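Chain A, query sequence.
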Amino acid sequence: MPLFDLFWSMLWFFLLIAWISLLIQVYADVFRSADLSGPAKAAWALFVLVLPYLGVFVYLIARGGSMQERSADRAARAQHATDQYIRSIAAAPSSADELIKLTQLRDQGSLTPQEFEAQKAKLLV
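Chain A, predicted structure.
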């Protein structure tokens, strides 16, 4: 019988963790949802707080389908912002590239040695 008790306890522990995770996801969706007004957010939060099981299940029935859409939109926006940041960093010329260009301009005679040194000092600072 003790082995059965262990499995039973593990099952209840797993269900508790799953319930807490679901509760956190519902609260996060309520407060992140742009299509809900302030009073509606407060009403949902209070409903889930006062009657947690009923509140979560009603929320999942009423707004559960759009939870995934909002989550996917947030993930897409975050990915887009990350991609833009990476492109902006990758597109920026490095100091070494700028020094090579300055050296070429000096060798062509477009820059005087004093101008070259001034520009090089700016780059290296």
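The chain has two domains: 2-92, 94-125. DSSP finds five helices and no strands in the chain.
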